[in-house]
Amino acid sequence: MTRAAVLTGLGTYVPPRVxxxxxxxxxxxxxxxxxxxxxxxxxxxxxxxxxxxGDLAVEAGARALKSAxxxxxxxxxxxxxxxxxxxxxxxxxxxxRLGLGNVAxxxxxxxxxxxxxxxxxxxxxxxxxxxxxxxxxGAETYSTILDPADRTTSVIFGDGAGAVVLRAGEPxxxxxxxxxxxxxxxxxxxxxTVPGGGSxxxxxxxxxxxxxxxxxxxGRPADSYFTMQGKQVFRHAVTRxxxxxxxxxxxxxxxxxxVDWFVGHQANVRILHxxxxxxxxxxxxxxxxxxRVGNTSAASIPLALADAIAAGQVGPGDRVLMSAFGGGVxxxxxxxxxxxxxxx
Length: 344
Ligand code: UT7
Prior knowledge:
- Pathway: Lipid metabolism; fatty acid biosynthesis.
- There is one protein chain.
- By secondary structure, the chain is α/β, with parallel strands linked by helices.
- It folds into 2 domains: about 5-170, Thiolase/Chalcone synthase (Peroxisomal Thiolase, Chain A, domain 1), CATH 3.40.47.10; about 180-185 and about 230-335, Thiolase/Chalcone synthase (Peroxisomal Thiolase, Chain A, domain 1).
- Helices cover about 35% and strands about 20% of the residues.
- α4 links the parallel β4 (about 75-80) and β5.
- α8 packs parallel to α9 (about 270-280).
- About 50% of the residues are buried.
- Bound molecules: oxa(dethia)-CoA (UT7).
C-alpha cells in the first residue's frame, strides 16, 4: 500500500505591523470602501524593512515543529514567490536556522498555488521513501515587490508564513492527504509577473551590451515590481479552482455537500464565493481570513487553516478541501480529514 503523507503539525506567523485600508488611502488613490467591497480585505500585515521571507519562514517553521512535538524532519520544502535572493534558495538557510542539520531543502515557485504544490512534492518524497517527515512552509513578503504607484496590486497583498509537518502514515488515518489535482497553463504567464531579475531580462541586457561595444552589461534597471492583470486573473481563478476542486472531490470520493470546510486561496472573497457556488457548496462553509491578512500567496492556505481552527470552525474529523490558483498560471487542490492537532 502507498505510504500516505499525514499532517501532524501546523504553525503560522505574521509580522506585527498592521496596515489598514485607511493607512493605504492616505498614500495612494484608493478608499477603504473600494478595497472592502471589491476584495473583502480590511487590513494586512507588512514586514518592516530588513525582514525577509526567510525570517517569517523560520518563525512559522519553528511553530509547526512545536505543534508536531518533534523537530525531527528530513526534508524542508519552502513555497515562495519572494525568496530572500534569486540564488541560493531560501529553504536551506531556513533549515539551518531551525537547527535541522544537513536535511534536504529546496524552494518551490508556483506563486499562489505554491503551498499545494509543496504538499504534493513532500507527499511524493514520503511515498517514495525519500523522506519520513517533511516540513512544508509557505512564506511571502509581497510588500517587498509591490509597486506603490500601482493601486490595483498594492492594496491586495500581505506578508506572512504558514507551515505544516507531514509524516509517513496510512491513507485511512485522519490527517492523511487524499491526493492532489495540479495543473498549469503557461500560455497565460503574462497575467501575473515579476518581469525583471531573471535570465530573460539578463540575456536581453547582455545582447544589447554586445550590440553596442563598450557599454556595460546589465545597464537596464531591474523591473522588479509585481504586476497582475486582475480582471483576467479573477476569471481564470474561479474557473480553474472550481474545476480542480471538482477533480479533487472525485479523487477523494466525496460529494460537495459532504465537505465541511472549503479552504481556498485567499485572494478575493468574491472568488471564494463564486467557487463555492460552482461547487454547489454553502458559502458559509468557505473559510475566509483574507479580511485580516490580505492575499499572502503561498502562505495563504495554512494561515487560513490556522485562523479557522482558532475561530472554532475547522476541527478534528472535519472534511477539508483546499484549492489554490496563482501565477504561471498554476492551480492545485488537495483534501484531508482534519486531524486532532494543536496549531501554534
Ligand atoms: O493571488 C493570485 C490570484 N489573484 C487573484 O485571484 C486576484 C484576482 N483579481 C481580483 O481580485 C480583482 O480583479 C481585483 C481586486 C484585483 C480588481 O477588482 P476588479 O473588480 O476586477 O476591478 P478592476 O481592475 O476592473 O477596476 C475597476 C475600477 C477601475 O476604474 P475604472 O476604469 O472603472 O474607472 C480601476 O481603476 O476600479 C479602479 N481601481 C481602484 N479604485 C480604487 C482599481 N484598483 C483600485 C483601488 N482603489 N485600489
